[in-house]
Design a protein that fits this description.
The strands form four sheets. A six-stranded antiparallel beta sheet has the order 3-2-1-6-5-4, sandwiched between helices. By secondary structure, the chain is an alpha+beta fold. It folds into three domains: 3-189, Beta-Lactamase (2-Layer Sandwich), CATH 3.30.450; 208-346, Beta-Lactamase (2-Layer Sandwich), CATH 3.30.450; 376-598, Phosphatase 2c, domain 1 (4-Layer Sandwich). The protein has 14 helices and 22 strands. Mean pLDDT is 81; it is low at 1-24. The chain has helices at 3-13, 24-39, 45-60, 99-107, 164-207, 213-227, 268-276, 328-356, 360-374, 423-442, 447-461, 537-540, 552-561, 567-581; strands spanning 62-69, 76-83, 90-95, 111-113, 137-144, 147-157, 232-239, 244-251, 280-282, 300-308, 311-320, 385-392, 400-408, 411-419, 468-476, 481-487, 493-495, 501-503, 507-508, 522-525, 531-535, 591-598.
Protein backbone atom coordinates (compact mmCIF):
# COMPACT_ATOMS: atom_id res chain seq x y z
CA UNK A 1 0.00 0.00 0.00
CA UNK A 2 1.23 3.51 -0.82
CA UNK A 3 2.68 5.17 2.33
CA UNK A 4 0.87 8.46 1.70
CA UNK A 5 -2.45 6.62 1.27
CA UNK A 6 -1.92 4.88 4.62
CA UNK A 7 -1.20 8.17 6.37
CA UNK A 8 -4.33 9.72 4.89
CA UNK A 9 -6.44 6.75 6.00
CA UNK A 10 -5.11 7.00 9.55
CA UNK A 11 -5.73 10.73 9.60
CA UNK A 12 -9.29 10.30 8.33
CA UNK A 13 -9.97 7.57 10.88
CA UNK A 14 -9.90 10.04 13.75
CA UNK A 15 -8.01 7.61 15.98
CA UNK A 16 -5.40 10.21 16.75
CA UNK A 17 -8.05 12.58 18.05
CA UNK A 18 -9.96 10.01 20.05
CA UNK A 19 -8.66 10.59 23.58
CA UNK A 20 -8.26 7.38 25.58
CA UNK A 21 -10.27 8.64 28.54
CA UNK A 22 -13.38 9.77 26.71
CA UNK A 23 -16.29 7.96 25.17
CA UNK A 24 -16.55 4.66 27.06
CA UNK A 25 -18.20 1.90 25.05
CA UNK A 26 -19.16 4.21 22.22
CA UNK A 27 -15.53 5.16 21.75
CA UNK A 28 -14.46 1.48 21.71
CA UNK A 29 -17.16 0.67 19.19
CA UNK A 30 -15.94 3.55 17.04
CA UNK A 31 -12.37 2.28 17.30
CA UNK A 32 -13.44 -1.23 16.34
CA UNK A 33 -15.33 -0.01 13.28
CA UNK A 34 -12.47 2.21 12.16
CA UNK A 35 -9.92 -0.53 12.81
CA UNK A 36 -11.96 -3.03 10.80
CA UNK A 37 -12.17 -0.63 7.87
CA UNK A 38 -8.45 0.09 7.87
CA UNK A 39 -7.29 -3.51 8.36
CA UNK A 40 -9.53 -4.64 5.52
CA UNK A 41 -7.79 -2.18 3.20
CA UNK A 42 -4.85 -4.57 2.60
CA UNK A 43 -4.00 -8.28 2.69
CA UNK A 44 -0.24 -7.81 2.31
CA UNK A 45 1.49 -9.07 5.46
CA UNK A 46 4.11 -6.36 5.99
CA UNK A 47 1.67 -3.54 5.19
CA UNK A 48 -0.85 -5.05 7.60
CA UNK A 49 1.70 -5.29 10.44
CA UNK A 50 2.75 -1.67 10.00
CA UNK A 51 -0.84 -0.47 9.86
CA UNK A 52 -1.76 -2.44 12.99
CA UNK A 53 1.17 -1.02 14.96
CA UNK A 54 0.30 2.52 13.94
CA UNK A 55 -3.35 1.97 14.90
CA UNK A 56 -2.63 0.72 18.41
CA UNK A 57 -0.10 3.49 19.09
CA UNK A 58 -2.67 6.13 18.15
CA UNK A 59 -5.50 4.34 19.98
CA UNK A 60 -3.76 4.52 23.39
CA UNK A 61 -1.38 7.44 22.65
CA UNK A 62 1.82 5.41 22.98
CA UNK A 63 5.35 5.99 21.74
CA UNK A 64 5.94 2.59 20.10
CA UNK A 65 4.61 -0.94 19.68
CA UNK A 66 5.82 -4.29 18.42
CA UNK A 67 4.32 -7.59 17.21
CA UNK A 68 5.80 -11.05 16.89
CA UNK A 69 4.47 -14.46 15.83
CA UNK A 70 5.47 -17.81 17.32
CA UNK A 71 7.45 -19.98 14.91
CA UNK A 72 8.04 -23.52 16.19
CA UNK A 73 10.76 -24.08 13.59
CA UNK A 74 13.22 -21.52 15.01
CA UNK A 75 14.64 -20.91 18.48
CA UNK A 76 13.98 -17.17 18.48
CA UNK A 77 11.27 -14.71 17.47
CA UNK A 78 11.41 -12.07 14.77
CA UNK A 79 10.01 -8.87 16.24
CA UNK A 80 8.55 -6.09 14.07
CA UNK A 81 8.57 -2.73 15.88
CA UNK A 82 7.21 0.67 14.89
CA UNK A 83 7.83 3.91 16.80
CA UNK A 84 6.35 7.37 16.36
CA UNK A 85 8.36 9.23 13.74
CA UNK A 86 9.64 6.07 12.02
CA UNK A 87 9.06 5.57 8.31
CA UNK A 88 9.88 1.87 8.34
CA UNK A 89 9.38 -1.07 10.65
CA UNK A 90 12.42 -2.16 12.63
CA UNK A 91 13.29 -5.88 12.78
CA UNK A 92 14.47 -7.03 16.20
CA UNK A 93 15.27 -10.41 17.76
CA UNK A 94 13.75 -12.00 20.86
CA UNK A 95 14.36 -15.40 22.42
CA UNK A 96 11.40 -17.78 22.67
CA UNK A 97 9.48 -17.58 25.97
CA UNK A 98 11.37 -14.64 27.46
CA UNK A 99 10.15 -11.41 29.10
CA UNK A 100 6.66 -10.13 29.81
CA UNK A 101 5.45 -11.24 26.39
CA UNK A 102 6.45 -14.80 27.24
CA UNK A 103 4.56 -14.50 30.52
CA UNK A 104 1.44 -13.19 28.76
CA UNK A 105 1.52 -16.08 26.25
CA UNK A 106 2.08 -18.70 28.95
CA UNK A 107 -0.80 -17.31 31.02
CA UNK A 108 -2.97 -16.29 28.03
CA UNK A 109 -3.70 -12.96 29.71
CA UNK A 110 -2.92 -9.26 29.09
CA UNK A 111 -0.47 -7.50 31.38
CA UNK A 112 0.13 -3.83 32.37
CA UNK A 113 3.50 -2.77 33.77
CA UNK A 114 3.90 0.90 34.73
CA UNK A 115 7.19 0.23 36.50
CA UNK A 116 8.76 -2.53 34.38
CA UNK A 117 12.32 -2.02 35.62
CA UNK A 118 11.32 -3.34 39.06
CA UNK A 119 9.26 -6.29 37.81
CA UNK A 120 11.07 -9.68 37.67
CA UNK A 121 9.08 -10.62 34.55
CA UNK A 122 10.60 -7.75 32.58
CA UNK A 123 13.55 -8.57 30.31
CA UNK A 124 15.90 -5.98 28.84
CA UNK A 125 16.37 -8.09 25.71
CA UNK A 126 14.22 -5.79 23.52
CA UNK A 127 15.13 -2.63 25.45
CA UNK A 128 18.84 -3.17 24.71
CA UNK A 129 18.07 -3.04 20.98
CA UNK A 130 16.19 0.29 21.19
CA UNK A 131 17.38 3.90 21.18
CA UNK A 132 14.88 4.86 23.91
CA UNK A 133 14.00 3.60 27.39
CA UNK A 134 10.93 1.50 28.19
CA UNK A 135 9.05 3.31 30.98
CA UNK A 136 5.76 1.42 30.87
CA UNK A 137 4.02 -1.12 28.66
CA UNK A 138 0.98 -3.27 27.94
CA UNK A 139 1.28 -6.74 26.39
CA UNK A 140 -1.70 -8.55 24.79
CA UNK A 141 -1.68 -12.15 23.49
CA UNK A 142 -2.85 -12.48 19.87
CA UNK A 143 -5.39 -15.28 19.49
CA UNK A 144 -6.93 -16.69 16.32
CA UNK A 145 -8.83 -19.95 15.75
CA UNK A 146 -8.70 -20.58 19.49
CA UNK A 147 -4.89 -20.53 19.73
CA UNK A 148 -2.40 -17.86 20.78
CA UNK A 149 0.03 -17.39 17.90
CA UNK A 150 1.88 -14.25 18.98
CA UNK A 151 1.80 -11.10 21.08
CA UNK A 152 1.31 -7.34 20.79
CA UNK A 153 3.32 -5.08 23.10
CA UNK A 154 2.63 -1.34 23.35
CA UNK A 155 5.38 0.80 24.88
CA UNK A 156 5.52 4.17 26.70
CA UNK A 157 2.23 6.01 27.27
CA UNK A 158 2.87 9.58 26.08
CA UNK A 159 0.68 11.30 28.68
CA UNK A 160 1.11 9.31 31.89
CA UNK A 161 0.62 5.64 32.74
CA UNK A 162 -1.37 2.89 31.10
CA UNK A 163 -4.68 2.05 32.78
CA UNK A 164 -7.44 -0.54 32.50
CA UNK A 165 -9.25 1.46 29.82
CA UNK A 166 -6.10 1.27 27.66
CA UNK A 167 -5.92 -2.46 28.32
CA UNK A 168 -9.59 -2.98 27.39
CA UNK A 169 -9.13 -0.88 24.26
CA UNK A 170 -6.17 -2.97 23.13
CA UNK A 171 -7.91 -6.25 23.96
CA UNK A 172 -10.83 -5.17 21.76
CA UNK A 173 -8.52 -4.15 18.91
CA UNK A 174 -6.32 -7.25 19.25
CA UNK A 175 -9.11 -9.61 18.19
CA UNK A 176 -9.45 -7.93 14.81
CA UNK A 177 -5.68 -7.51 14.45
CA UNK A 178 -5.08 -11.20 15.23
CA UNK A 179 -7.64 -12.40 12.68
CA UNK A 180 -6.28 -10.07 9.99
CA UNK A 181 -2.64 -11.09 10.61
CA UNK A 182 -3.52 -14.80 10.72
CA UNK A 183 -5.47 -14.57 7.45
CA UNK A 184 -2.70 -12.58 5.79
CA UNK A 185 -0.10 -15.12 6.92
CA UNK A 186 -2.21 -17.98 5.54
CA UNK A 187 -2.44 -16.14 2.22
CA UNK A 188 1.29 -15.46 2.22
CA UNK A 189 2.06 -19.11 2.92
CA UNK A 190 -0.34 -20.23 0.18
CA UNK A 191 1.33 -17.92 -2.33
CA UNK A 192 4.74 -19.16 -1.23
CA UNK A 193 3.73 -22.81 -1.64
CA UNK A 194 2.39 -22.13 -5.13
CA UNK A 195 5.63 -20.36 -6.07
CA UNK A 196 7.68 -23.25 -4.71
CA UNK A 197 5.63 -25.91 -6.53
CA UNK A 198 5.91 -23.95 -9.77
CA UNK A 199 9.65 -23.61 -9.34
CA UNK A 200 10.07 -27.29 -8.47
CA UNK A 201 8.06 -28.31 -11.52
CA UNK A 202 10.00 -25.89 -13.73
CA UNK A 203 13.34 -27.20 -12.49
CA UNK A 204 12.19 -30.82 -12.76
CA UNK A 205 11.18 -30.29 -16.39
CA UNK A 206 14.55 -28.75 -17.22
CA UNK A 207 16.48 -31.46 -15.41
CA UNK A 208 14.65 -34.42 -16.89
CA UNK A 209 16.70 -34.52 -20.09
CA UNK A 210 20.14 -33.38 -18.92
CA UNK A 211 23.16 -35.50 -18.12
CA UNK A 212 25.40 -32.48 -17.42
CA UNK A 213 25.83 -32.67 -13.64
CA UNK A 214 27.34 -29.23 -13.07
CA UNK A 215 24.72 -27.56 -15.26
CA UNK A 216 21.93 -29.35 -13.39
CA UNK A 217 23.29 -28.48 -9.93
CA UNK A 218 23.77 -24.86 -10.97
CA UNK A 219 20.11 -24.71 -11.97
CA UNK A 220 19.05 -26.22 -8.62
CA UNK A 221 21.26 -23.87 -6.61
CA UNK A 222 20.05 -20.77 -8.49
CA UNK A 223 16.43 -21.80 -7.89
CA UNK A 224 17.17 -22.34 -4.22
CA UNK A 225 18.58 -18.80 -4.02
CA UNK A 226 15.27 -17.46 -5.36
CA UNK A 227 13.14 -19.33 -2.79
CA UNK A 228 15.37 -19.46 0.29
CA UNK A 229 18.20 -17.03 -0.27
CA UNK A 230 21.89 -17.38 0.61
CA UNK A 231 25.16 -15.48 0.37
CA UNK A 232 27.23 -18.61 -0.20
CA UNK A 233 26.17 -22.17 -0.89
CA UNK A 234 26.91 -25.38 -2.62
CA UNK A 235 26.03 -29.01 -3.19
CA UNK A 236 28.78 -31.26 -1.83
CA UNK A 237 28.91 -34.81 -3.14
CA UNK A 238 30.48 -37.68 -1.23
CA UNK A 239 33.65 -39.17 -2.68
CA UNK A 240 33.57 -42.55 -0.94
CA UNK A 241 37.04 -43.51 -2.23
CA UNK A 242 38.77 -40.45 -0.76
CA UNK A 243 36.50 -40.33 2.31
CA UNK A 244 35.74 -36.67 1.71
CA UNK A 245 33.27 -34.25 0.18
CA UNK A 246 33.82 -32.90 -3.29
CA UNK A 247 32.27 -29.48 -3.98
CA UNK A 248 30.76 -30.18 -7.40
CA UNK A 249 29.09 -26.80 -7.61
CA UNK A 250 29.19 -23.82 -5.26
CA UNK A 251 28.66 -20.05 -5.26
CA UNK A 252 29.77 -17.15 -3.08
CA UNK A 253 33.04 -18.54 -1.67
CA UNK A 254 36.42 -16.83 -2.03
CA UNK A 255 38.40 -18.60 -4.79
CA UNK A 256 41.42 -18.50 -2.47
CA UNK A 257 39.63 -20.78 0.01
CA UNK A 258 38.21 -23.20 -2.59
CA UNK A 259 40.73 -25.90 -1.65
CA UNK A 260 39.30 -25.84 1.90
CA UNK A 261 35.89 -26.88 0.56
CA UNK A 262 37.11 -30.44 -0.02
CA UNK A 263 36.32 -31.47 3.54
CA UNK A 264 36.78 -34.78 5.26
CA UNK A 265 33.60 -36.68 6.07
CA UNK A 266 34.06 -35.98 9.78
CA UNK A 267 34.56 -32.21 9.38
CA UNK A 268 32.21 -29.32 10.05
CA UNK A 269 28.45 -29.13 9.93
CA UNK A 270 28.22 -30.97 6.62
CA UNK A 271 30.17 -33.85 8.15
CA UNK A 272 27.73 -33.89 11.08
CA UNK A 273 24.76 -33.98 8.70
CA UNK A 274 26.35 -36.76 6.64
CA UNK A 275 26.86 -38.89 9.76
CA UNK A 276 23.43 -38.26 11.28
CA UNK A 277 21.28 -37.90 8.15
CA UNK A 278 19.46 -34.93 9.69
CA UNK A 279 19.09 -31.29 8.66
CA UNK A 280 21.03 -28.80 10.79
CA UNK A 281 19.82 -25.20 11.22
CA UNK A 282 22.29 -22.89 12.98
CA UNK A 283 20.94 -19.47 13.97
CA UNK A 284 24.37 -18.10 14.97
CA UNK A 285 27.43 -19.95 13.68
CA UNK A 286 29.71 -18.17 16.16
CA UNK A 287 28.11 -20.21 18.95
CA UNK A 288 28.29 -23.59 17.19
CA UNK A 289 31.57 -25.46 17.39
CA UNK A 290 30.64 -27.58 14.38
CA UNK A 291 30.88 -24.61 12.01
CA UNK A 292 33.84 -24.75 9.63
CA UNK A 293 34.80 -21.11 9.01
CA UNK A 294 35.09 -20.97 5.22
CA UNK A 295 33.66 -17.39 5.22
CA UNK A 296 34.20 -14.71 7.80
CA UNK A 297 30.92 -12.99 6.91
CA UNK A 298 28.67 -15.99 7.59
CA UNK A 299 26.29 -15.59 10.54
CA UNK A 300 23.77 -18.41 10.02
CA UNK A 301 23.77 -21.69 8.11
CA UNK A 302 21.52 -24.56 7.06
CA UNK A 303 22.81 -27.96 5.97
CA UNK A 304 20.53 -30.70 4.61
CA UNK A 305 21.20 -34.24 3.31
CA UNK A 306 20.88 -35.01 -0.40
CA UNK A 307 19.55 -38.55 -0.47
CA UNK A 308 17.44 -40.89 -2.55
CA UNK A 309 15.84 -44.02 -1.13
CA UNK A 310 17.62 -43.34 2.20
CA UNK A 311 21.00 -43.48 0.47
CA UNK A 312 23.08 -40.35 1.11
CA UNK A 313 24.83 -39.03 -1.99
CA UNK A 314 25.78 -35.57 -0.74
CA UNK A 315 24.93 -32.54 1.36
CA UNK A 316 23.21 -29.23 0.59
CA UNK A 317 24.85 -26.23 2.35
CA UNK A 318 23.61 -22.61 2.48
CA UNK A 319 25.22 -19.74 4.41
CA UNK A 320 23.83 -16.26 5.11
CA UNK A 321 25.37 -13.02 6.35
CA UNK A 322 22.20 -12.46 8.42
CA UNK A 323 21.75 -14.08 11.81
CA UNK A 324 18.73 -16.40 12.05
CA UNK A 325 18.11 -16.47 8.29
CA UNK A 326 16.85 -20.07 8.10
CA UNK A 327 13.95 -21.97 9.64
CA UNK A 328 11.89 -25.12 9.23
CA UNK A 329 10.37 -23.87 6.00
CA UNK A 330 13.86 -23.43 4.54
CA UNK A 331 14.51 -27.06 5.44
CA UNK A 332 11.35 -28.16 3.59
CA UNK A 333 12.44 -26.35 0.42
CA UNK A 334 15.93 -27.84 0.62
CA UNK A 335 14.46 -31.30 1.12
CA UNK A 336 12.43 -30.97 -2.08
CA UNK A 337 15.38 -29.65 -4.11
CA UNK A 338 17.61 -32.29 -2.50
CA UNK A 339 15.38 -35.01 -3.95
CA UNK A 340 15.79 -33.50 -7.42
CA UNK A 341 19.55 -33.15 -6.94
CA UNK A 342 19.80 -36.78 -5.84
CA UNK A 343 17.88 -37.89 -8.92
CA UNK A 344 20.23 -35.95 -11.21
CA UNK A 345 23.30 -37.24 -9.40
CA UNK A 346 22.14 -40.83 -9.60
CA UNK A 347 21.25 -40.53 -13.28
CA UNK A 348 24.48 -38.77 -14.31
CA UNK A 349 26.65 -41.10 -12.29
CA UNK A 350 24.99 -44.08 -13.92
CA UNK A 351 25.46 -42.49 -17.33
CA UNK A 352 29.10 -41.79 -16.61
CA UNK A 353 29.77 -45.37 -15.59
CA UNK A 354 28.17 -46.74 -18.72
CA UNK A 355 29.84 -44.29 -21.08
CA UNK A 356 33.22 -45.14 -19.60
CA UNK A 357 32.76 -48.85 -20.27
CA UNK A 358 34.70 -49.82 -23.41
CA UNK A 359 33.09 -53.13 -24.28
CA UNK A 360 29.49 -54.29 -24.57
CA UNK A 361 30.17 -57.15 -22.15
CA UNK A 362 31.40 -54.68 -19.54
CA UNK A 363 28.41 -52.41 -20.14
CA UNK A 364 26.01 -55.32 -19.68
CA UNK A 365 27.79 -56.33 -16.48
CA UNK A 366 27.47 -52.80 -15.07
CA UNK A 367 23.83 -52.52 -16.10
CA UNK A 368 22.99 -55.90 -14.54
CA UNK A 369 24.75 -54.90 -11.32
CA UNK A 370 22.87 -51.61 -11.15
CA UNK A 371 19.56 -53.33 -11.81
CA UNK A 372 20.25 -55.81 -9.01
CA UNK A 373 21.23 -53.03 -6.57
CA UNK A 374 17.95 -51.25 -7.20
CA UNK A 375 15.93 -54.29 -6.16
CA UNK A 376 15.06 -54.77 -2.46
CA UNK A 377 17.55 -56.68 -0.33
CA UNK A 378 14.80 -58.14 1.81
CA UNK A 379 11.05 -58.25 2.17
CA UNK A 380 9.43 -55.55 4.35
CA UNK A 381 7.87 -56.25 7.72
CA UNK A 382 4.31 -54.89 7.78
CA UNK A 383 2.06 -55.61 10.74
CA UNK A 384 -0.90 -57.75 9.67
CA UNK A 385 0.56 -58.54 6.24
CA UNK A 386 2.86 -61.02 4.54
CA UNK A 387 4.63 -59.28 1.63
CA UNK A 388 7.32 -60.65 -0.67
CA UNK A 389 8.78 -60.02 -4.09
CA UNK A 390 11.07 -61.83 -6.51
CA UNK A 391 12.91 -61.07 -9.76
CA UNK A 392 14.38 -63.69 -12.09
CA UNK A 393 16.39 -62.06 -14.90
CA UNK A 394 16.44 -63.54 -18.38
CA UNK A 395 19.70 -64.16 -20.20
CA UNK A 396 19.99 -60.51 -21.27
CA UNK A 397 19.77 -57.55 -18.90
CA UNK A 398 16.15 -56.43 -18.88
CA UNK A 399 14.16 -53.59 -17.49
CA UNK A 400 11.95 -55.14 -14.80
CA UNK A 401 11.75 -53.43 -11.42
CA UNK A 402 9.90 -53.86 -8.17
CA UNK A 403 10.36 -52.03 -4.90
CA UNK A 404 9.03 -51.16 -1.48
CA UNK A 405 9.07 -47.47 -0.52
CA UNK A 406 8.61 -46.50 3.14
CA UNK A 407 6.03 -43.69 3.31
CA UNK A 408 5.26 -43.56 7.04
CA UNK A 409 2.03 -43.36 9.05
CA UNK A 410 1.35 -47.06 8.47
CA UNK A 411 1.75 -46.82 4.69
CA UNK A 412 4.13 -48.69 2.38
CA UNK A 413 4.63 -47.88 -1.30
CA UNK A 414 4.53 -50.86 -3.68
CA UNK A 415 5.91 -50.55 -7.20
CA UNK A 416 6.36 -52.90 -10.14
CA UNK A 417 7.41 -51.87 -13.64
CA UNK A 418 8.60 -53.20 -16.98
CA UNK A 419 10.68 -51.09 -19.37
CA UNK A 420 10.32 -51.57 -23.11
CA UNK A 421 13.42 -53.06 -24.70
CA UNK A 422 16.44 -54.89 -23.31
CA UNK A 423 20.06 -54.37 -22.36
CA UNK A 424 21.77 -51.17 -21.29
CA UNK A 425 19.13 -48.77 -22.69
CA UNK A 426 16.39 -50.53 -20.71
CA UNK A 427 18.50 -50.47 -17.54
CA UNK A 428 19.11 -46.72 -17.96
CA UNK A 429 15.41 -46.01 -18.45
CA UNK A 430 14.57 -48.17 -15.45
CA UNK A 431 17.10 -46.25 -13.31
CA UNK A 432 15.63 -42.92 -14.41
CA UNK A 433 12.08 -44.14 -13.77
CA UNK A 434 12.93 -45.45 -10.30
CA UNK A 435 14.75 -42.27 -9.27
CA UNK A 436 11.92 -40.05 -10.54
CA UNK A 437 9.28 -42.16 -8.78
CA UNK A 438 11.07 -42.07 -5.43
CA UNK A 439 11.73 -38.32 -5.71
CA UNK A 440 8.05 -37.57 -6.39
CA UNK A 441 6.90 -39.84 -3.56
CA UNK A 442 9.19 -37.92 -1.19
CA UNK A 443 7.38 -34.71 -2.21
CA UNK A 444 4.13 -36.15 -0.76
CA UNK A 445 1.94 -35.55 -3.81
CA UNK A 446 -1.27 -37.52 -4.28
CA UNK A 447 -0.86 -40.87 -6.01
CA UNK A 448 -2.36 -39.67 -9.30
CA UNK A 449 -0.10 -36.58 -9.18
CA UNK A 450 2.96 -38.77 -8.62
CA UNK A 451 2.14 -40.78 -11.75
CA UNK A 452 1.43 -37.64 -13.77
CA UNK A 453 4.74 -36.00 -12.82
CA UNK A 454 6.79 -39.18 -13.34
CA UNK A 455 5.18 -39.57 -16.76
CA UNK A 456 6.19 -36.02 -17.81
CA UNK A 457 9.75 -36.45 -16.56
CA UNK A 458 10.10 -39.79 -18.35
CA UNK A 459 8.55 -38.48 -21.57
CA UNK A 460 11.12 -35.67 -21.67
CA UNK A 461 14.09 -37.95 -20.98
CA UNK A 462 13.55 -41.00 -23.24
CA UNK A 463 13.63 -41.50 -26.99
CA UNK A 464 10.31 -41.72 -28.87
CA UNK A 465 9.01 -45.26 -28.68
CA UNK A 466 10.56 -45.98 -25.29
CA UNK A 467 8.15 -46.34 -22.39
CA UNK A 468 7.53 -48.01 -19.04
CA UNK A 469 4.46 -49.95 -17.94
CA UNK A 470 3.97 -50.09 -14.21
CA UNK A 471 1.70 -50.08 -11.19
CA UNK A 472 2.28 -47.92 -8.14
CA UNK A 473 0.23 -48.55 -5.03
CA UNK A 474 0.21 -47.43 -1.40
CA UNK A 475 -0.74 -50.07 1.18
CA UNK A 476 -2.37 -48.59 4.29
CA UNK A 477 -1.90 -51.33 6.89
CA UNK A 478 -4.02 -49.43 9.42
CA UNK A 479 -7.14 -49.11 7.25
CA UNK A 480 -6.37 -52.24 5.17
CA UNK A 481 -6.67 -50.41 1.85
CA UNK A 482 -4.48 -50.41 -1.25
CA UNK A 483 -4.70 -47.22 -3.32
CA UNK A 484 -3.20 -47.76 -6.78
CA UNK A 485 -2.79 -46.45 -10.32
CA UNK A 486 -2.01 -48.73 -13.27
CA UNK A 487 0.05 -47.29 -16.14
CA UNK A 488 -0.66 -49.75 -18.95
CA UNK A 489 0.68 -52.71 -16.96
CA UNK A 490 -0.60 -56.27 -16.53
CA UNK A 491 -3.45 -55.76 -14.02
CA UNK A 492 -2.53 -57.16 -10.61
CA UNK A 493 -4.83 -60.01 -9.55
CA UNK A 494 -6.87 -59.72 -6.36
CA UNK A 495 -7.84 -63.15 -5.03
CA UNK A 496 -10.58 -62.91 -2.39
CA UNK A 497 -11.19 -65.37 0.44
CA UNK A 498 -14.21 -66.75 -1.47
CA UNK A 499 -11.97 -67.42 -4.56
CA UNK A 500 -13.52 -64.53 -6.52
CA UNK A 501 -11.12 -62.56 -8.74
CA UNK A 502 -10.85 -58.85 -9.49
CA UNK A 503 -8.16 -56.91 -11.35
CA UNK A 504 -6.40 -53.61 -10.52
CA UNK A 505 -6.77 -52.15 -14.00
CA UNK A 506 -7.62 -48.45 -13.44
CA UNK A 507 -5.05 -45.78 -14.17
CA UNK A 508 -3.73 -44.48 -17.46
CA UNK A 509 -1.39 -45.18 -20.41
CA UNK A 510 2.22 -46.40 -20.06
CA UNK A 511 4.68 -43.85 -18.70
CA UNK A 512 6.53 -41.79 -21.30
CA UNK A 513 4.19 -42.08 -24.29
CA UNK A 514 1.78 -39.12 -23.84
CA UNK A 515 3.35 -36.15 -22.08
CA UNK A 516 0.13 -34.70 -20.69
CA UNK A 517 -1.52 -37.99 -19.76
CA UNK A 518 -3.80 -38.10 -16.73
CA UNK A 519 -3.88 -40.99 -14.28
CA UNK A 520 -6.81 -42.27 -12.26
CA UNK A 521 -6.34 -43.70 -8.78
CA UNK A 522 -8.57 -46.27 -7.08
CA UNK A 523 -8.73 -47.80 -3.60
CA UNK A 524 -9.36 -51.48 -2.81
CA UNK A 525 -10.19 -52.81 0.65
CA UNK A 526 -8.50 -56.01 1.80
CA UNK A 527 -10.10 -58.60 4.07
CA UNK A 528 -8.31 -61.30 6.04
CA UNK A 529 -7.00 -63.95 3.63
CA UNK A 530 -7.14 -61.71 0.53
CA UNK A 531 -4.14 -61.81 -1.81
CA UNK A 532 -2.97 -59.19 -4.34
CA UNK A 533 -0.53 -60.55 -6.96
CA UNK A 534 1.57 -58.07 -9.00
CA UNK A 535 3.57 -59.43 -11.94
CA UNK A 536 5.27 -58.56 -15.21
CA UNK A 537 4.39 -60.11 -18.56
CA UNK A 538 7.43 -62.38 -18.34
CA UNK A 539 5.24 -64.67 -16.22
CA UNK A 540 2.18 -65.05 -18.46
CA UNK A 541 4.08 -64.78 -21.77
CA UNK A 542 6.69 -67.44 -20.97
CA UNK A 543 6.62 -69.95 -23.85
CA UNK A 544 6.98 -73.71 -24.05
CA UNK A 545 8.51 -75.57 -26.99
CA UNK A 546 5.24 -75.30 -28.95
CA UNK A 547 5.27 -71.52 -28.57
CA UNK A 548 2.23 -71.48 -26.26
CA UNK A 549 2.10 -68.95 -23.45
CA UNK A 550 1.95 -69.86 -19.77
CA UNK A 551 -1.18 -67.70 -19.60
CA UNK A 552 -3.34 -65.93 -17.08
CA UNK A 553 -5.71 -68.83 -16.39
CA UNK A 554 -2.90 -71.16 -15.35
CA UNK A 555 -1.52 -68.36 -13.13
CA UNK A 556 -4.88 -67.80 -11.37
CA UNK A 557 -5.33 -71.51 -10.77
CA UNK A 558 -1.91 -71.69 -9.12
CA UNK A 559 -2.82 -68.76 -6.87
CA UNK A 560 -6.00 -70.50 -5.73
CA UNK A 561 -4.22 -73.79 -5.09
CA UNK A 562 -1.50 -72.13 -3.00
CA UNK A 563 -3.47 -69.38 -1.28
CA UNK A 564 -2.61 -70.79 2.19
CA UNK A 565 1.14 -70.64 1.52
CA UNK A 566 3.33 -67.71 2.57
CA UNK A 567 3.87 -64.81 0.17
CA UNK A 568 7.44 -65.95 -0.45
CA UNK A 569 6.34 -69.53 -1.12
CA UNK A 570 3.65 -68.36 -3.58
CA UNK A 571 6.38 -66.57 -5.57
CA UNK A 572 8.57 -69.65 -5.53
CA UNK A 573 5.76 -72.00 -6.58
CA UNK A 574 4.87 -69.84 -9.60
CA UNK A 575 8.55 -69.44 -10.51
CA UNK A 576 9.04 -73.22 -10.45
CA UNK A 577 5.87 -73.75 -12.51
CA UNK A 578 7.15 -71.35 -15.18
CA UNK A 579 10.50 -73.18 -15.24
CA UNK A 580 8.77 -76.53 -15.76
CA UNK A 581 6.52 -75.08 -18.47
CA UNK A 582 9.47 -73.66 -20.42
CA UNK A 583 11.77 -76.64 -19.84
CA UNK A 584 14.57 -76.54 -22.37
CA UNK A 585 13.63 -73.07 -23.59
CA UNK A 586 15.43 -69.80 -22.77
CA UNK A 587 13.42 -67.22 -20.88
CA UNK A 588 12.70 -64.39 -23.30
CA UNK A 589 11.88 -61.88 -20.59
CA UNK A 590 12.51 -61.21 -16.92
CA UNK A 591 10.06 -62.68 -14.43
CA UNK A 592 9.07 -60.34 -11.62
CA UNK A 593 6.39 -60.94 -8.97
CA UNK A 594 5.17 -59.17 -5.83
CA UNK A 595 2.67 -60.74 -3.41
CA UNK A 596 0.64 -58.91 -0.74
CA UNK A 597 -1.31 -61.17 1.60
CA UNK A 598 -3.45 -59.96 4.49
CA UNK A 599 -2.95 -62.34 7.39
Amino acid sequence: MNEQVKKEQLKESGLKDAAPNGGGHSRLEKLLLQTSRLLNSTVEYEDLIRLALQLVCQAVNSEAAFIFRIDEHIDHRRVRLWAQGDDDIRLLRKEQGSGVAGWALDNEAPLILNDPQNDPRFSTEIADQLDFEINNLIVIPLVSRGKAFGALEVINKRDGEFDELDRDTLVGLSDQIAISIDNSQLLREARRRVQEMEKLFEVGAKLSGTLDLEKALKLILNSTRELVGFDAGGIFLIDSDKKEFDAVYHQGYDPQTEKDLHLKLDSGLIGWVARNGETAIVTDVTTDERYFAARGETRSEIVAPVAVDDQLVGVFNLESNIEGAYDGHSADVLRAFGAQAATVIERTRLHGRIVSAQALEKQLEIAHQIQTEFLPDEDPVIEGYDVSGINIPSGEVGGDYYGFIEIGNGQMGLAIADVSGKGVPAALIMASFRASLIAEIRNHFSLSSICRKVNKLLHDSVEPGDYVTGVYGALNSLDHVITYSNAGHNPPITLRQDDSITFLDKGGPPFGIIRGAEFEERSVSLSVGDIVFFYTDGVTEAENKAGDHFGEERLIELLKQNRNETARRICEVIRDAVYRYTLGETLLDDITMLVVKRQ
